[in-house]
Amino acid sequence: MRINCRTLAALCVLGFSLAGCNRPAEVRYRLRVEVNDRGTIRSGSSVWSFALAKSILPLASPYNSRFRGDAVAVEIPGRGILFALVDSAAMYPENLFGDRQRPEVNPPRFSDRVEDLHNIKKMDGATKTLNCVNPAWIGIRCPKLIRFRNINDPRTLEIVNPENIAELFGNGVNLRKISVEITNDSVTTGIDKILPWISDMTRYRTDPSNPFTSTLPRDIVYLRGH
Known about the structure:
10 strands, 16% helix, alpha+beta, single chain
């Protein structure tokens, strides 16, 4: 039986099962956070993945996207752990290395976002530093920074001001740099080793006897991307 392209497309499963029909693109990139702790550089990094494919039925969006990776954790001995969340992170490759960087100035080079990502994937080793001291950039090209007053209690989450992390981490501590590097390394996992409670989020939200029910800060969900 002959199967034409239209029939073949109808048989493809929506989203990322379309790899054979749609040639989806995936870019992996390392986000590194550096902190100056009274003259000592503390750093942490995570490899994140952003993948994109065209939708067969673009009812809500012309693309299907998928993000994977864990938040970056930087331990500052005696002061706590600084986390850089994955919220708004999926767009980093396009915003920093592709057609979405200043589109009003630089005309697009590719016909669609998937082709743009395929091109970015070839830039292995390319690095850019984020501007995290201008409030207008926070949440757009810089990750949101948080900490926990009690690492064992997700309710103690606090937002960290990148311009003044000493406010929560003590005098002599400041954000040195946040950078993004295109890489082919494996996606980072394992944040549950630092935050064991993160694996029980569903139970926390649904178990009426659990003290965390309905009290978890919104930003908790951005500690891990799926």
